[in-house]
Design a protein that fits this description.
Layout: H1 3-34, H2 37-57, H3 61-88, E1 110-113, E2 116-119, H4 121-134, H5 159-162, H6 168-184, H7 204-218
Helix pairs in contact: 1-4, 2-3, 6-7
Length: 221
Amino acid sequence: MDNSLLKQVLHEYEEKRNKAILDAEKRKKELMQVNPRLLEIEDELSKNSIETSKAILFADQKDKDKLLSALKKKNNSLIKEKNDFLKKLSKENNYLNPHFDCKLCKDSGYVQKDNTTSMCSCLKQRIFDIAYNKSNMGNLERENFSNFNIRMFADKPDKDKYKSDLSPRENMQIIKEKVKNFIDNFDNPEEKNLIFTGNTGVGKTFLTNCIANEALKLGKT
């Protein structure tokens, strides 16, 4: 992947995320002017969490459970009060929250799971869309896996030339399978992205068009 493209898209995501947060703050400020009690509720929710977190640090497990239970009870009561007020104004419960385009990554482009960070499917899709528009997609009908001829590649290894114990054909077969796996798991946030590197004429555009063609068939564009 072109690093400049990733940087461009991440900047786009940052601006979009910041706008969603600022818009939420604006909505919150407007409603708090109508009903100052909303500010009190927000402050109490924050204060409860902070005080409980501090208390938990010095509590045993039994007391921790009691503290968490009490926090949940107090916060649920405050949240219900806030939601009732929003309902009277015909507003959704999430009206005061940032309205992100992607609920999975909250417009950050990345998701965290099991202490690991991976690229969100929405970011992969955005990068693909830009690359799709920039690339030469006029050859899409003929540059696809149906026309992928593995016999074009030498079937004998040449370690001195290719710096590998594999033959070009074996290596290309592995790459082809990885590309197909990438397409099949395109919406999986844990799926790693692909980076094509190499000199002109080695097949990078062909593989890109193969991905585009398969993605179009599967409705993943």
